[in-house]
Amino acid sequence: MEKTWRWFGRKDAVTLDMMRQIGVEGVVTSLHEIPNGEIWQYEDIRRLQEQIASYGMVWSTVESLPVSESIKYGGPDRDKLIDNYIKSLENLGKAGIHTVCYNFMPVIDWIRTDLSHPLGDGTSTLYFDLSRLAYFDIYVLGRENAEADFPEETVKAAEELSRTITRKEIDDLIDTIIVKTQGFINGNIDENDNDPVNKFKSLLALYKGISKEQLRLNLQYFLKRIMPVCDEYGINMCIHPDDPPMPVFGLPRIVCDKDDIEWLLGCVDNFHNGLTFCAGSLSAGGQNDIVPMAKCFVSRTHFVHLRSCDILCGGNFIEAPHTGGRADLVELVRIFEKEPRNIPMRVDHGRTMLGDENGGYNPGYSFHGRMLAFGQVEGIMAAVRNEINNNII
User: Fold this and answer.
1) What is the secondary structure of 316-380 as a DSSP string?
2) Could you give the CA distance from residue 393 to residue 149 in angstroms, rounded to a whole number?
3) Residues 6+ apart with CB under 8 A from 330
4) Nearest of 283, 301, 302 to residue 243 by alpha carbon
């Protein structure tokens, strides 16, 4: 696997020089300054590519070329937006960039309810509390029939929380769920929005009546339209699993488990229609057995995110150390290292530690925490390569 690192462009507090010094080979990034739906021009792509190359690294993977909401829900302008997407892919292909990670999650990307959950060793990590998500859905959004989407005990816990939660806690929850985790990833909402809750509600309304089956058909339509340019330039599209892998806010989610991925890969049966195997997102779902899934989909995996989660009681989950959790990263490295292709890999969602909280880093993308994880995974890779070279596995 190629050792890569996600970089959020020129405004990222983690610099290219820092990445070079810790042994990063490939950069995973995006043209974050380009609004969703607009064409990525060849000149802009080359300019960033050359900047990365000047530090001895390559622009390995695009994460992400965002799919506009209108493409996802099938709006009247989706064909024009797909045409723009195709032109952007063509320009990436001309520049020699062949891996594009994207997602088809409606409205909202990854969701956590706590971005700095304290741990006993003084570090902190990301945390998902289902009862707090239910409180947000039922009492902050006021979504119709939201209670029906949660277990009875979760609804009761949310009701109890409604009696004690403070205004600051509510504001922090809003900021965590729909602002801080979204704005830095070409999201629909950013910190400059004065009323993020109402904007979020308006985005949810766009998906009224969109079922899981319809969202699947919209994804299939998108993939069929873009596959010819992917074939022409050898571009591997790798969809990111839903995070968490379950429906949220009444929205369908269509990349949650083995059955979903099998449908995805079969609906457009083309090698360039592939998967980002995010072990962390998948391990947050109790329905998923991660190692067998990796073995099943390795031939169509074009990008790997190595992290892991632990599932707790009540539907909660927590980011686990990269050497622990449900995902078994050691065995995953064995699977992907034996694949003859050099698949880009990045660690993900490192702990906050050693002053990371003061570094201006994006949530989940600390420097020291990810550097620790990067070193751990690099050690696993070295051990596995030794096993392979000595025919131990």
Assistant:
1) -EEEEPTTSSSS-HHHHHHHHHSSSS--EEEE-SPPB-TTGGGTTPPTT--SHHHHHHHHHHHHH
2) 45
3) 380, 384
4) 283
Looking at the predicted structure, is the pLDDT value of residue 357 above 70? yes
Average pLDDT (269-297) is 97
pTM of the full structure: 0.95
Give me the phi and psi of 245, to 5 degrees please.
-80, 70
- On whether the CB atoms of residues 29 and 9 are closer than 8 A, the answer is yes
The distance between the two most distant Cα atoms of the chain, rounded to a whole number of Å, is 62
The dihedral built from the CA positions of residue 352, 54, 276 and 76, taken in this order, carries a sign that is positive
Please report the pLDDT score of residue 184 as a whole number: 64
Q: How far apart are CA 393 and CA 391, in angstroms?
A: 5
Determine how β-strand 99-102 pairs with β-strand 236-239.
parallel
CA–CA gap between residue 345 and residue 325 (Å, rounded): 18
**Helices then strands (H, E): number in the chain?**
14, 12
Active site residues: 240, 278, 305, 348-349, 365
Handedness of CA 194, 195, 201, 206 (dihedral sign): negative
Tokens found for residue 141: 């959004």
Spatial separation of the C-alpha atoms in residues 246 and 256, rounded to whole Å: 6
